[in-house]
Amino acid sequence: MTSPQTHLPKPADGLAIAALIFAAICVAAAFATTSLVRNAVAGIEQSHPVHEVIYWIVILAAAALFWPAVQGLLLARKAAGAREQKDAVTVRIDTAASRDRSSLTFGWGVFVLLVLGFIAFIFMNNTAVGKTFFLLPLLLQKWPQVFLKFVTVNIFVFVVAEILVLVWGLVVALARMMPGPAGRPIRALATLYCDIFRGLPAIVTLYLIGFGIPTSGLPEIVIPWFYGLFADTSDMTVQQLRDMSRIPVAWWCILALTLTYGAYVAEVYRAGIESIHWSQVSAARSLGLSYLQTMRHVVVPQAIRRVIAPLLNDFIGLQKDTALVQILGLVDAFNASRGIAANAFNLSAVTIVAILFVLITIPQARLVDHLVERDNQRMKAGG
Q: How far apart are CA 122 and CA 119, in angstroms?
């Protein structure tokens, strides 16, 4: 008969000792980082007692990692004593608790090392790195100018393109799934569109549409003709017709981004629609609903809830790609920050753009997490 000892967990002493060593490494890194910061600050201004307090707070925060590591070691030794007494229940409980405490040291230790590494990066080379990216006077002086361009150009292009992409992507997805032999050419066209625009880089599409279509003179033909359907254009001069057909660059950017991301979003929609069980479609059709009615009332509402997270990834990419509009000469936040950086010989203005993009992305991510969690709770309650 197998001895109960063979089913006991492995001792956690090794993990606890490793946690102690890792905590010591974190404390050493804290000492090294505070020493680097102290020397860098001393070269800029006179040392202040507050600085020393902050240094010691950082060191003590790193030293706090010893607490769970020591707890893990004590619990591991307690489990070893219970093992000698053949107390299987105590061995299992104390070993699991020891591993949990030691794991806390590793988890928070990695966080501490990353923060210390970032601080060391900022203060390297006598804070030359920090001054290059985070020069506070320049940040405070230029952020209103960069923020204004960010709102009026990047956010405008992003919001309008996102709305159009949501609608256009769904149209393409439904076209790709059009049933029957009659829908075959529509499916082929939708598939061809997705293949082409998923293969083209966004910057190429922007360049071709933003420069190619206006250069071809097509707007000067189509827009006056369309306007002439509703009003008389015979009294207009050639210059007036050209002025009327001049489309702002921002709208060419929106068109290019809509075509590019519409292909990606169409595939996300299609994956969500295909995830709905075929029996729901069959049941809806048997009740007399047409294909479009089935999609509208049964399939699409469920599919959209399932693809919220993938849609967010595409829209984050769309938001970041609004920085590409500067290739068409549109002065957005990134283009404005480049001009400031060239004049000031400093990249702090570009850092403002980076911060703005990150700040607008985080709420979107948290909102989607909330929506996904709410949908999961609803499904569990329904189950």
A: 5
What's the predicted TM-score (pTM) here?
0.76
Instruction: Give phi and psi for 229, each to the nearest 5.
Output: -70, -25
The per-residue pLDDT for 128 is 79
Examine residue 167 and state whether it is found in any structural domain, yes or no: yes
Q: How far is CA 113 from the centre of its chain?
A: 23
Residue found under tokens 């707070």: 57
Q: How far apart are CA 1 and CA 311, in angstroms?
A: 57
Whether 259 and 147 map to the same domain: the answer is yes
Q: What is the mean pLDDT of residues 102-106?
A: 94
Structure tokens at 60: 């003590």
Note whether 238 and 269 are same-domain residues: yes
Report the C-alpha gap between 19 and 16 in whole angstroms. 5
Distance CA 74, CA 65 (A): 15
Tell which of 116, 132, 148 closes a domain. Answer: 132
**Is residue 332 predicted with pLDDT exceeding 70?**
yes
Where residue 241 falls among pLDDT bands split at 50, 70, 90? low
The identity of residue 283, as a single letter, is A
272-319 per-position pLDDT tens digit? 988 888 888 888 888 888 888 888 888 888 888 888 888 888 888 888
Q: What is the mean pLDDT of residues 342-362?
A: 88
What tokens appear for 131 in the block? Answer: 């001054």
Domain boundary among 132, 158, 173: 132
User: Contact at 8 Å (CB) between 138 and 144?
Assistant: no
Is 246 in the same domain as 126?
A: no
Containing structural domain, residue 47: 7-132
CB 324 within 8 A of CB 261: no
Query: Residue 368's domain is classified under what CATH number?
Result: 1.10.3720.10
The alpha-carbon radius of gyration of the chain (Å, integer) is 31
Split into its structural domains, the chain has a count of 2
Least Cα distance to 172 among 241, 265, 100, 33 occurs for 265
Pseudo-torsion of CA 40, 45, 47, 49, nearest 10°? -120
Instruction: For residue 1, tell me if it sits in a domain.
Output: no
Q: What would the pLDDT profile of 147-174 be if each residue is shown by its tens digit?
A: 999 988 899 999 999 999 999 999 999 9
